[in-house]
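pinging the channel bc i need a second pair of eyes. not urgent but kinda urgent?? the chain im working w is below, pasted from the shared doc
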Amino acid sequence: MTIADFYQELVILPILVLIILLNLWGSRANRQRAKQWAATHLPMLESEFASIGFSGNSRSPKLGDGQDKGLAKAMAGSTDVPDDMLREKSKGEYITYATGRQNVAWLDVKVSLYPRYNPFKWIGELALSFFSDSMQAPTERVEATIYCFDGKEKGLVPAQSQSGGGGSKDSTYDGFVWAIVHKDKMKQLRDDRYDLSLTTTKDHPKLPAWATCMSESAEVTEALLTPDLIKAINDAGEDLEALIVTDQPIDAPKKYVPSTPF
C-alpha cells in the first residue's frame, strides 16, 4: 500500500474540513449578528410590552442582579442575550416574542440572515436571482407581526384579569387593509399577498419619494399617517420594505365566507 492509494482521500478530506470550518464560522457570525440586533432593539420593546421572550416572566428575565434592572441597562455594551429572549430556529433564522400590551394579543419577530453557514447556497441563490425574476436574492430582514385582540379579549385574557383595576375592553373595529410600501417591493407584494391586491396605490405628499401608500380608503390614510409614523418611516429609510395593517388573509380564500355584520 502506497501514498498513491490515498490520493482520493487526500483531496476529499481538506474539502470536508473547509466545509465544516465555513459552517462553524457562518453559524457563529449569524448568531452574533442576531444577538447584536436583540441587544439594540429588545430594550425598545421593553418600553412597549410587559413580557419579552419565551420565559413567560415579566420584563427582563435573567438579566438583572436581583434588582429591577431594565433591558437597556442589563444589555449595555453586551450581546450576551439569554436563550429565552432570542431563540435560534435555524442557523439563518432567529425568533423572539412579546406580549402584555393593551389591545395586542402578542408580537412575533423573525430575524432572517444570510446563509453564511453555507456559502455555496448563498452564491447559488445569488446567481439564480440574477437570471430569474421569480427567485429572490438572499437578504437580511426583520419581520414583525402584531396580532390584535379584535374583540377576542374574553377568550384570551383570564376573567380575573379583566374584572379589576381597569380591565381590558373589547377592541373590535371595522376591518381595513392599509400599507406603506417601498415602491421597489410594491408589485411583488401585490402578487404575493391577497390582502394588498384589494387596495389602490397612491403617493402621498407626506411620504418620502421611495414610499407609496396602498389603501382601501383615503380617510384611513389620513387617520393613520401621523407625524410620529412619518418620522419613523423617514428614520428607517429605504431599508423599510412594508408596514401593513390588514384584516384579510395573505392567501386568497378558497371559498366564499360571508362577513359577520357589526
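so The beta strands are 51-52, 87-90, 93-99, 104-112, 141-148, 178-182, 200-202, 211-215, 242-245. and Residues 60-69, 159-168 have pLDDT under 50 and may be disordered. — does that match what u expected or am i reading it wrong
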